[in-house]
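Recap from last week: sequence in, structure out.
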Amino acid sequence: MSTVQQFIALSRAIDALNIRLGKWLSWLVLVVVLISATNATVRKIFDTSSNAWLELQWIIFSIIFLLCSPWTLISNEHIRIDIVNSAFSQRARNIIDVVGHSIFLLPLTIIMIITSYPFFIRSFEINEQSMNAGGLPQWPAKALVLIGFFLLFLQAISELIKRVAVMRGLIPDPYRGQSSHQAIEADAERLIAEIKKD
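Predicted structure tokens:
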């Protein structure tokens, strides 16, 4: 296997990891809704509440936001100005993606990994607890920052590999000819197929 093929295989492995993780963690949206509704109901009916349940909602939201962001990137659903982006040729868009991932996304993820590691370690070592009465430990939430940006770093590497491979004609463009509307429909069809499997 050539070096180029090894890089493409690495990209596929990263994609598979982040897609599977994103699909599994997306079910936490339902969990956080149920926790939120239960907490609000208990507070209204029994005039009691728990900071632990409130903080658990924040942690689950953080899991969804941070750990599903690589899945958003691979699905090509990240924020961009579509009107401007669609005015460029496919080659220009590929170059913009390579430059954007290399100069902005990768350095950001590296900085966040480097700075969030001691942030998490200090919290873990002292077993940092919430300042709210009955709250949860803080270090798991801080670990999510480190894990989330590490996964995003891996996905940025994968996206760079794919963009360069597409520009060299080694693989077909996975996003070519797919509008946002088509992408949403394809996602809906995939989700329905996953539900039917379960």
